[in-house]
Amino acid sequence: MPYKDKGHLKIEDRGAVLVVRVDGGPHQEFGLDISTQLDKLVDRADRDPNIRAVVFTGAHPERFVSHAAVRWLQEEGAASPTVGRRGAAAVVRMAKHVDRSRLLGTLMRKTPMRGALQLERLHTTFLRMNRSGVLFVAALNGSALGLGAEFAWACDLRVMADGDFFIGQPEVLLGIIPGGGGTQRLTRLIGTHRSLAAILEGKPFTPAEALANGAVDQVVPQDKVVTQAIELAERLGKRSKGSVAAAKRSVYFGGSMSLEDGLHVERAEFFARVMSQEGQTLMLGYLNATDVTGELPLYRPDTYTQALASGSVPGRRSTNER
After folding, report:
1. What pLDDT, in 10s, does the model give residues 18-35?
2. ∠ CA(253), CA(21), CA(5), 5° rounding?
């Protein structure tokens, strides 16, 4: 039976936080339809200054996202000519350039190259999430394999349900490898050797193993996953959207470069924020508070606690300031 789109995203607007339920059809699979809608959602969140965080969870009662729609992968693979590793490298390089051209992209999506373009677009969407000032939180209400896990790895934070659930990369058992970023993002989360061993075996992590390895940030009872993820999103979403974007770009992209190149990325992001109106206003408030109280605000426990809760250090106006 030919692959047909079945999934969609159900978006609940909660002000600064969007709660998105991923509905992947009867088997809770991630297909082209969800990929396309996700791209539009990331664009919306990026453009709207009032959206500070997005929480993703699964519509299925025990699955976040099962994995990619295998029929989708198989049919796109079958539609493309068989090539070796060098040929495949050339195809994906071409897809990267073609995807940036609206006219060429539209034309090429009607050719056997469409699978490479679809994958390029998904990677671009995940990378936009990594560059964004919006926080993306995966509320793993159940299991996630393959592209479901890769979707979670592409988020900034992960809260997973405790119980008989699992998360991992089983692609080797189907004669393929992770293609949605698993070899790269899982490696950056848990380290090269543990990532390679997990990918080679194809065995997923239990919630406890995922937490111990650093693949998820919290493990909580299933009925509290979404609530906990929303609380996390609301709290960290109070931080400056510009500073969140700068920190994410520095860590995600600078952190995988050489030390010298990574420090260059950090310097550029740092200076952009130091010169920003927001950064200047908050720093001047800090200086004024120091003058008024005679102590550095971040060395006052009550002030630090307040800053963590509100997302910025509260400033005080000096007595000479009008």
Report:
1. 999 999 999 999 999 999
2. 90
HSE-CB for 14 with a 13 A CA cutoff: 16
35, two tokens: 């990929």
At 124-170, the pLDDT tens digits run 999 999 999 999 999 999 999 999 999 999 999 999 999 999 999 99
Distance CA 119, CA 129 (A): 16
Q: Are 58 and 141 in contact (CB under 8 A)?
A: yes
Predicted TM-score of the model (pTM): 0.88
At 51, the pLDDT band (50, 70, 90 cuts) reads: very high
* DSSP string over 107-127: HHTTSTTHHHHHHHHHHHHHH
Task: Report the C-alpha gap between 130 and 185 in whole angstroms.
Answer: 11
DSSP annotation of 254 reads G
* Residue 137, Ramachandran bin (φ over 0: left; ψ between -120 and 50: alpha; else beta): beta
How many angstroms separate the most distant Cα atoms in the chain? 76
